């Protein structure tokens, strides 16, 4: 049975109790982040003996967060009109539980895998760079480039208002030539860590070192204000891997395999 979550504080208390009880989980974000989704009626729950599923409805997918007692088996999910996406962040050499095979047994399929890279700020190059920030006139073009460049379910693309705010507050760096957008990099802060959220280069800018230049702009801009730089990169994107390695980024041991359950499976 699926029930709507209506009281954010009660839900947050339940999450905290599940985590403190040592349950297996993929819940890796703050409960505060999901409070607006609860208020909009987009969070539901399926409880079963030994565990629970929380479903958060996005524009194109349903994100699944689970809590499961040790030795308890996964339960089948109800059918949703949108794909259900599951992401489990874990240490690379650790055993992921439940396993991919267990999720596949209830209808999920492998989708993609990312690994997290980091660079200590003290190891970032010290250089003076002429940084070009995006502005609100770039908004439509950046949105179009985002839609073309990223897969639809796990890229966490911002809505127009969030992107507009980031542009106003200097969190979007761009590269241009004769007024033509050659690429952009959007970043944010998590305490003293600067996080690269998205970087994209259209065909017109490829082969010109635009991506590397945008990363160097980001490092130069944030180096004095943070202790570490961080990003996620897909395993099936070797060119991005090489670019980040040349800038000094290294794996920190975190991986994020993503699985998907499409309607009817």
Task: Describe the protein.
It is built from seven helices and 13 strands. The chain has 265 residues and is of the alpha+beta class. It folds into two domains: 2-112 and 257-261; 121-255, Aminopeptidase (3-Layer(aba) Sandwich), CATH 3.40.630.30. Strand 11 (193-200), helix 6 and strand 12 form a beta-alpha-beta unit.
Give a topology summary.
Blueprint (H helix, E strand, L loop, with lengths): L1 E3 L3 H13 L3 E2 L5 H9 L3 E6 L2 E7 L4 E7 L15 E4 L2 E2 L8 H5 L4 E12 L18 H11 L10 H9 L3 E6 L2 E11 L2 E8 L9 H13 L5 E7 L3 H9 L3 E12 L4
Parallel strand pairs: 5-6, 11-12
Antiparallel strand pairs: 1-3, 2-5, 3-4, 4-5, 6-13, 7-13, 8-12, 8-13, 9-10, 10-11
Helix pairs in contact: 1-2
In short:
By secondary structure, this protein is of the alpha+beta class. It contains seven helices and 13 strands.
Principal-axes shape call? globular
| Biggest beta sheet attributes | 13 strands, mixed
- The first-level CATH class of the largest domain is given as Alpha Beta
Helix and strand run: EHEHEEEEEHEHHEEEHEHE
| Cα gyration radius (Å) | 20 Å
Structural class, from helix and strand content? Answer: alpha+beta
Low-confidence stretches: none
How would you state the average pLDDT, rounded? Answer: 93
User: What distance lies between the first and last C-alpha atoms, to the nearest angstrom?
Assistant: 19 Å
How many beta-strand segments? Answer: 13
Helix content: 25-40%
Tell me what portion of residues adopts beta-strand conformation.
Answer: 25-35%
CATH superfamily of the largest domain: Gcn5-related N-acetyltransferase (GNAT)
């Amino acid at each position: 049975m699926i029930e709507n979550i209506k009281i954010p504080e009660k839900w947050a208390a339940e999450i905290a109790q599940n985590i403190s009880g040592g349950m297996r989980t993929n819940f890796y974000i703050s409960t505060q982040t999901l409070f607006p989704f609860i208020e909009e009626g987009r969070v539901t729950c399926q409880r079963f003996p030994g565990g629970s599923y929380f479903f958060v409805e996005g524009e194109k997918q349903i994100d699944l967060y689970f809590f499961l007692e040790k030795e308890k088996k996964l339960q089948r999910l109800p059918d949703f009109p949108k794909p259900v996406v599951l992401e489990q962040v874990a240490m690379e050499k650790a055993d992921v539980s439940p396993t991919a095979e267990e999720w596949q047994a209830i209808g999920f399929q492998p989708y993609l895998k990312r690994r997290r890279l980091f660079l200590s700020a003290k190891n970032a190059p010290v250089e003076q760079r002429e940084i070009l920030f995006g502005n609100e006139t770039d908004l439509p073009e950046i949105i179009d480039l985002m839609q073309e460049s990223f897969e639809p379910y796990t890229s966490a693309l911002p809505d127009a208002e969030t992107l507009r705010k980031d542009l106003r507050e200097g969190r979007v760096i761009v590269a241009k030539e004769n007024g033509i957008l050659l690429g952009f990099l959007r970043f944010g802060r998590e305490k003293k860590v600067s996080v690269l959220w998205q970087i994209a280069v259209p065909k017109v800018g490829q082969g010109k070192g635009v991506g590397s230049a945008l990363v160097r702009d980001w490092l130069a801009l944030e180096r004095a204000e943070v202790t570490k730089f961080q990003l996620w990169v897909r395993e099936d994107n070797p060119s991005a891997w090489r670019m980040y390695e040349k800038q000094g980024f290294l794996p920190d041991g975190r991986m994020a395999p993503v699985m998907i359950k499409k309607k009817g499976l």
